[in-house]
């Protein structure tokens, strides 16, 4: 639409010169031991520079060793399944700690990505350049530590398809040997005006508020056999954080098995599910779902619009 601005032919062009330059910096763990159950710690100890952690990349290089005649492939989001726990600290304060990051990030990805996204992001480690849920895109400074704990085996990362010849089926084993882990971070250099303002605020001990989401994983080993109703009490306490989203999924006999894919979940023909939080139920009315008859429009609507009550 045309406006008076179209006739402002004498205005001075504006150029964004707030950032002088951007560099990629690589950080490595002090102890290069990447075997199962090992802890990998990468520390950034730079107090006078600004790092764009939201654009960070974790590069893992290694090889797969196979014994047997079957075929071996990576499962979706395999990189996250290589670790049993991941934590992030800023100035010796833990911001987030995730147990079973492969399972957590896979479920989160299913909530955000389409089927097409999940396929073409396989080679990108499920890292979406323009994420549907954008994180806080603010630079950080000070001592930062990323701690990764290797899983006790690599069965959740790999999928083995056995070959059958006549009456004989091959037995194949496979494992991952990590040779190097590298953290690449963008280092951003602001212009002198912005740098002076930031340093002045830092010297004045101005609080820096960083918004973030923290994920908790709770697992129920089994459901009661022969029962169509179950109540699962979960205790979660926190001083500041409160639950924002609750995702429930079902899976049977797929963990720690080379011949099963842990990124696949089961349809158990749920007819109703309800969350009770501090005496209030979500949703407030009972859902009448029937997946066998494709009657799940209400649940799909709530998923699309993230409607809880």
UniProtKB/TrEMBL annotation:
InterPro entries: DJR-like_dom. Pfam families: DJR-like_dom (PF21738). Signal peptide: none annotated. Residues 74-127, 137-300 form the Double jelly roll-like domain. This is Double jelly roll-like domain-containing protein. It comes from Exocentrus adspersus. The lineage of its organism: Eukaryota, Metazoa, Ecdysozoa, Arthropoda, Hexapoda.
